[in-house]
From TrEMBL:
Pfam assignment, any one: SBP_bac_8
Coiled coil stretches, renumbered: none
Keywords from the named record: Signal, Transport
Source species of the chain: Cohnella rhizosphaerae
The protein, known as: Extracellular solute-binding protein
One record GO biological process: maltose transport
SUPFAM superfamilies for the chain: Periplasmic binding protein-like II
Cellular component terms (Gene Ontology): ATP-binding cassette (ABC) transporter complex, substrate-binding subunit-containing
PANTHER family: MALTOSE-BINDING PERIPLASMIC PROTEIN, MALTOSE_MALTODEXTRIN-BINDING PERIPLASMIC PROTEIN
Family stated for the protein in its record: Belongs to the bacterial solute-binding protein 1 family.
GO molecular function: maltose binding
Signal peptide: 1-24
Length: 426
């Protein structure tokens, strides 16, 4: 058995090519330390990864723990709707995770408040190279010329389609890609009506009503919309483009082309009860592994005029309160996740931020990944503002109110814009 190393060897280890060895399988459970083998540094890793992503994260953590003996990672998985509230409280009190997932659009207020460690020095000591990360992702974690997180991926939505349902509806081509007619709202609705007429008992399209701000932004960005004014001081979601997009979704609900009351639309698609679904790339590994689901994936159709769409990015950050030993250990794990774990993360469906992994033959050979990379190029990044989290929460609540109460789009969006402007002005 390989001798267990203590933490002082981590920095040297990270500078040696292949120090971690090949990824191992299993959970990497630490069996305990003997007199001549120091106990590892134990890291608490907080993340919101559930559903289809969770199994891949468990593989990465297990592989890391089994690949070396100086660091042992334990994860705390929190529900996504409570994750940032708990993380923010923990960071402010200086007691919480040793390494944490932070979406790139959530970094700014944490950096401004001094809650996160600057990582340029620790990364250099660990042998981690920022130039191995794609430029757009790297820009998202840079503040004042310094980096405060390591990007893991870009994630966004694709159009998932049930091949069996589309074939029955007469909307599947010989190459097993959809034939959805002209790329306009009216053309898309005609296709959904054809599914309804020819395949009774299924939703033509499942819409993510529990997180409706995401499919709304997908099509709003397609239409050329922006969340904020160019100078970032005013909200910009009550114009004609936003009204058209919201009216489109309300039409789907009103005409029975999508079920407004479906609280788990991702399961409806997974169980073969929906023809189409704007789903995250992170769901690809799960759906493609479902033997009862004959699924295909393609970029979102540009029914509102362009290929722009919503997207975000996961990053790994280290709290400012971390000790030197914890920071070194966290960088060891982050380096592993980026350079080796990203292979598994790519299997989940995310676009790895590590360019060597993303451009590798193994990643490119995975099903539909070339289309994923194509769609990544048209992601519209979130505006950089300290108030993005509050703005997105408010937008989500206002949109929920509009669709659940069947409010008139123009007046509903005007009220939402006023609320966002109040946030921006305070």
């Amino acid at each position: 058995m390989r001798k267990r190393a203590g933490l002082p060897a981590i920095s040297l280890c990270l500078l040696l090519t292949g120090c971690f060895g090949a990824p191992a399988s299993g959970g990497g459970v630490w069996p305990g330390a003997s007199e001549d083998s120091p106990a590892p540094v134990v890291l608490s890793f907080w993340n919101p990864f559930g559903g289809g992503e969770g199994e891949f994260v468990e593989r990465i953590i297990g592989d890391f723990n089994a690949s070396q003996d100086a660091v042992f990672v334990k994860q705390l998985r929190l529900e996504s709707n409570e994750y940032y509230a708990r993380l923010g409280t923990a960071l402010s009190f200086g007691s919480g995770p040793d390494v944490a997932v932070v979406h790139a659009d959530r970094l700014s207020p944490l950096v401004k408040a001094g809650r996160l460690s600057e990582l340029d020095g620790p990364a250099e000591q660990a042998g981690f190279r920022f130039d191995e990360i794609d430029a757009a992702s790297l820009h998202s974690v840079a503040f004042g010329g310094k980096h405060y997180a390591i990007p893991l991926d870009t994630h966004f939505h694709m159009l998932y389609y049930n091949k069996d349902i589309l074939a029955q509806a007469g909307l599947l081509g010989a190459d097993e890609t959809p034939r959805l007619g002209e790329a306009t709202p009216e053309g898309f609705v005609r296709s959904l009506k054809q599914i309804r007429e020819r395949v009774p008992g299924v939703q033509p399209m499942a819409v993510n009503t529990p997180y409706f701000q995401e499919p709304f932004l997908d099509l709003y960005y397609e239409a050329g919309g922006d969340l904020l004014s160019p100078d970032g001081t005013r909200a910009a979601i009550a114009g004609d483009d936003a009204v058209r997009v919201l009216a489109f979704y309300q039409r789907l609900f009103a005409e029975g082309l999508s079920d407004l009351n479906d609280k788990t639309p991702w399961d409806s698609f997974d169980q073969g009860r929906a023809g189409l679904w704007f789903g995250g790339v992170w769901e690809a590994g799960h759906y493609l592994a479902n033997p009862s689901l004959n699924v295909g994936i393609m970029p979102l159709p540009p029914i509102f005029g362009s290929e722009a769409h919503w997207g975000s990015s996961h990053t790994l950050a280290i709290p400012a309160y971390a000790t030197d030993a914890k920071r070194d250990a966290a960088m060891a794990f982050i380096k592993y996740f980026s350079e080796i774990g990203s292979v598994v993360w790519g299997e989940a469906g995310h676009i790895p931020a590590n360019t060597a992994v993303m451009t590798s033959a193994a990643y490119q050979a995975l099903p539909y990944r070339k289309l994923f990379v194509q769609s990544q190029r048209t992601v519209k990044p979130a505006p950089r503002t300290d108030k993005y989290a509050a703005l997105l929460t408010a937008l989500s609540e206002e949109l929920q109110s509009i669709i659940q109460n069947r409010a008139e789009p123009a007046s509903g969006l005007a009220a939402a814009e006023r609320r966002l402007n109040e946030i921006l002005s305070n």
